[in-house]
Design brief:
About 60% of the residues lie in helices and about 15% in strands. The chain is α+β, with helices and mostly antiparallel strands. Strands 1-2-3-4-5-6 form a six-stranded antiparallel β-sheet.
Length: about 400
């Protein structure tokens, strides 16, 4: 009877411990999810707002049709979300776990026999969900929608419209005027062109039109036609016939060169290896950053819950910068065998070194110096600023 009671007591305490673990797991996951979602929403709105402003600036310069701006931005949503999920989840882990350390709630986890690795196990399903979502977006959805948005921008340009023009269609010139093509079966024939600006305007009628492109200009060659100058002015007018008349049209500027975060959101390469490794590396960072985030989030009670955010951001930007450098190296050296995998290996080794820091006598002093020294914080902030400027330009 006594033995049975002892078994019941042990089972009661065991089930009570499991119940506490389930509550703590749900609480931690919910807090990380809320923090990650909030950070994701903030960064997403900032990126989308920045892109909309950039496109409207291009539209104000006459380089982009305002009617297509919202469609282009909407098509880039999967691309933005793909690259923001790892950062948002990492910051969510840092914010949540540093808070429970600062508020001493961590002792509730320790009281049921949990260690930092158990926190990783709690958060692993959420990290795996983000990993799968990011992997699907990165490999399948984002490249497709990004290509669609680039097609819309290309079709909007004069050179693309001229290449795809059909019979009895009009193409608008970049700086005022239009070109009308009557027939496009074999040659561009039955051509009528109006060119106007503040200083002068002229009208051209020609039998044929041919085009040549250079780096900055599109050269239009009109054959066998008539030229009419000053058609909208009260001053002297000129009319003449010609065998050949040449007109140079400036190409539109590359829109993506004027956008921010081009290294992240506007990367395009003919290298399939670089594209594939980049698309796979972005989701992989979520799993590695989960381990790093849990272990570097430990703070002292009077240290401040946000003291780990600056080193964490610096670590993340370094990770991202090395991936970008590795991607550019693959583009320039397509036969390289290293790929981007060595970057992940570097941060795995960093994680192992951090876990083994207690084995070294000097590591504790270095850790305190980095966290508590004001000058070290300035150095970290400056380093983060320099890396951020390199990434966004």
């Amino acid at each position: 009877m006594v033995f049975t009671d002892k078994i019941n007591i042990v089972m009661h305490h065991s089930s009570q411990g499991m119940y506490k673990k389930n509550i703590l797991s749900k609480s931690l996951n919910m807090e990380v999810f809320k923090s990650s979602s909030s950070v994701l929403l903030i960064f997403f709105l900032l990126v989308v707002g920045s892109r909309i402003v950039g496109y409207f600036e291009q539209a104000a310069e006459g380089n982009l049709d305002p009617a297509i701006i919202m469609s282009v931005v909407a098509l880039r949503f999967p691309d933005f979300i793909t690259l923001l999920i790892p950062l948002s989840f990492f910051l969510g882990v840092l914010i949540s776990i540093s808070r429970i350390y600062a508020d001493r709630e961590i002792y509730g986890f320790f009281s049921v026999g949990l260690a930092p690795f158990e926190l990783i196990k709690f958060l692993a399903p959420q990290a795996l969900l983000y990993f799968l979502l990011t992997l699907i977006l990165s490999l399948y959805v984002a490249p497709y929608t990004k290509a669609l948005s680039q097609e819309i921008l290309k079709i909007d340009s004069f050179e693309e419209q001229l290449e795809s023009i059909k019979s009895d269609e009009i193409v608008s010139l970049n700086d005022g005027g239009f070109i009308y093509i009557q027939n496009t079966d074999n040659l561009l024939t039955g051509v009528k062109a109006l060119k106007q600006n503040q200083e002068n305007s002229f009208f051209v009628i020609a039998d044929e039109l041919s085009t040549n492109e250079s780096k900055e200009l599109i050269k239009l060659n009109f054959n066998n036609g008539s030229f009419y100058s000053g058609v909208f002015s009260d001053s002297s007018k000129l009319q003449s016939n010609f065998n050949e008349f040449k007109l140079d049209i400036k190409k539109k500027k590359n829109l993506t060169n004027d956008m921010s975060l081009t290294k992240l959101f506007d990367f395009s390469s003919d290298s399939n290896t670089a594209s594939f490794q980049w698309n796979v590396s972005v989701p992989i960072t979520i799993l590695i950053l989960l381990f790093i985030g849990v272990y570097i989030s430990e703070v002292k009670p009077r240290q401040g819950r946000f003291s780990v955010i600056l080193p964490g951001m610096l670590l993340y930007v370094m990770y991202l910068s090395l991936l970008i450098l590795g991607r550019e190296y693959i583009v320039d050296n397509p036969k390289t065998s290293f790929g981007l995998w060595y970057v992940h290996l570097i941060f795995i080794l960093f994680l192992l070194a951090y876990l083994l820091k207690d084995k070294f006598a000097y590591s504790g002093n270095i850790n305190l110096a980095i966290r508590d020294n004001l000058y070290m914080k300035y150095v970290l902030a400056l380093s983060l600023f320099i890396l951020m400027m390199w990434v966004v330009t």
